[in-house]
Design goal:
Subcellular location: Cell membrane
Low-confidence stretches: 1-6, 8-13
Transmembrane segments: 16-32, 44-63, 94-116, 123-141, 161-182, 212-229, 235-255, 267-286, 292-312
Distance between the termini: 28 Å
Structural class: mainly alpha
Mean pLDDT: 90
Pfam family, one: BPD_transp_2
Protein name: ABC transporter permease
Radius of gyration: 20 Å
Number of helices: 14
Main location: membrane
Length: 322
């Protein structure tokens, strides 16, 4: 079993390009804009990246086993929408919250079942579940924002503690939990073993289907948390609020060192990937650049960083062979 424990270890140079890119962006934007390095803007960056980070942490678990979840963005607002709609109709707090959470967990389980039981590729299976989540949230919300009447939820997820936004604290907590699971638990090592080589994982006695199901359920927990974080930033819960975050959650994880093919995962790297994406968007916003042009620039910068990481990784492999 000693080989299993080696899965997921990263090269000391694995994220060097990403760290250099973040440092360069901070220096450039600090010099060329007036308020980029201000406390107010840095706080805004952390708040802006919080939801994306937590969503990407959940995605990292899925990528680690060589699968992909493209339903997380559509699922993100499901729990908050159900909770807010039920609570507005005088359903007590705890039952409304439990039903909302269970709904997202049910879709997470559905994601896993269409993969392990029906044998569908994860991209296709989660695409179908994404459509289900989109439809449910819009039907429940009647495609309109719902007032979040419970002040406690607004404070817990959208308030501040000692001047620090609670969303940032949630992001830090979920990072610690995700990193602990993937690096310090047998379950995390098993996920990496499955992603690296499923045949070897079966030989080691790892129950593949069970771990895939648990990975998607764990992903759903992170999606639910991200959903309440995002929807409690304002007093209204909006259906479909996370649908634009799907690709960025995958990119943040991959930029941070998680392998799309599985077998390697890095939660801290995922955090840094989300930070990188947010810094680029924030800096371009300060230049008053069109959102459409911003999308092009962000995409090109991401391609450059990913290419740099790939070239460095290939170079390291060549050096090892020699």
């Amino acid at each position: 079993m000693t080989q299993v424990r080696k899965f997921g270890r990263k090269s000391k140079h694995n994220n060097l390009i990403l760290y250099i890119a973040i440092l360069a962006l901070v220096l450039i934007f600090s010099v060329t804009t007036k308020n980029f390095f201000s406390g107010t803007n840095l706080k805004a960056i952390l708040q802006s990246m919080a939801t994306l980070s937590v969503l990407a942490f959940g995605e990292t678990f899925i990528l680690s086993i060589g699968e992909t979840d493209i339903s997380n963005g559509a699922m993100l607002s499901l729990s908050p929408v159900i909770f807010a709609a039920l609570y507005m109709r005088d359903v007590p707090f705890l039952p409304a919250l439990i039903l909302g959470i269970l709904a997202t967990l049910a879709l997470g389980l559905l994601n896993a079942l269409v993969i392990v039981k029906a044998g569908l590729p994860s991209f296709i299976g989660t695409l179908g579940v994404s459509g289900v989540a989109m439809g449910l949230t819009r039907i429940i919300a009647n495609n309109k924002p719902i007032l979040m009447e419970h002040q406690g939820m607004l404070k817990v997820f959208g308030g501040e503690t000692a001047g620090i936004p609670n969303a940032v604290l949630w992001m830090a907590a979920m990072l610690l939990i995700g990193d602990f699971i993937i690096r310090r638990t047998r379950f995390g090592r098993n996920l990496l073993c499955i992603g690296d080589n499923r045949e070897a994982a079966m030989i080691y006695g790892i129950r593949i289907n069970r771990h895939v199901i648990l990975a998607f359920l764990l992903d759903a927990v992170f999606v639910t948390t991200a959903g309440f974080m995002e929807c409690c930033r304002s007093t209204y819960v909006t259906a479909g609020v996370g649908e634009a975050l799907v690709l960025n959650s995958i990119v943040a994880s991959v930029i941070g060192g998680t392998a799309v093919s599985g077998g390697r995962a890095n939660m801290v790297g995922t955090f840094m990937g989300a930070l990188f994406i947010t810094i680029v968007a924030n800096g371009l916003f300060m230049f008053a650049i069109s959102p459409y042009l911003t999308n092009i620039i962000v995409g090109l910068v991401i391609i450059v960083v990913l290419t740099g990481n790939a070239l460095m990784s290939n170079r390291e492999q060549e050096l090892k062979r020699t």
